[in-house]
Amino acid sequence: MARPNHFRDVIRIGPVRVGSRSDVRGRQKHTAACTAPRCGFSADYDSRAAAELAARTHTCTTN
Question: Could you tell me which Pfam families the record lists for this protein (predicted)?
Answer without folding.
Answer: SpdB
